[in-house]
Amino acid sequence: MTQMVQSVARARMISPSSIIIKDKEEIIPFINMVNEISKVVEDEFMGDWITTHHNFLNKTPLDEFNESGVDRVIDLLSLIDIDEADIID
Fold first, then answer.
1. What is the pLDDT of residues 5-21, one digit of tens each?
2. Cys bridge to 85: 8, 67, 78, 79, which one at CB 3.0-4.6 A?
3. Contact present, 38 and 44 (Cβ < 8 Å)
4. Which DSSP category does 12 fall into?
5. Which residues contact 47 (CB under 8 A, 6 or more apart)?
C-alpha cells in the first residue's frame, strides 16, 4: 500500500516524504481525496495545498484527513469550486 501512496503522490507532484497517513486502513480514502483535490487544485500545487493551513479547516487538509476523515476537506473543495472559498487563505 505504501507504494500506491507514493505512486499517487508522484503523479500528483506531492513529496511522498511530506505525507503521513496515521491510519494505514485509510489509504484508499486518502487516494480518493487526492483525486478530488486534483479536480480543483493544479497538480503542481497539490503538495503545498495539502500541507498548508487553511482557515476553513483551522488546520491543514492532511491534518484534517488524519484527525477526522475526508468530509470537511470535500466540503472545502466544494466551496472552492463554486468560488465561495479561496484555494489558499
1. 555 555 555 565 667 88
2. 79
3. no
4. T
5. 9, 12, 13, 14, 15, 18
Which stretch of DSSP H or E encloses residue 25?
none
Side chain identity at 14, as an amino acid letter?
I
Query: Within 13 Å, how many C-alpha atoms sit on residue 44's CB side?
Result: 0
CB 1 within 8 A of CB 27: yes
Q: What is the CA radius of gyration of the chain?
A: 12
| CA separation for the pair 12, 34 (Å, rounded) | 8
pTM of the shown model: 0.78
Q: Where are the domains of the chain?
A: 2-81
Amino acid in position 25: E
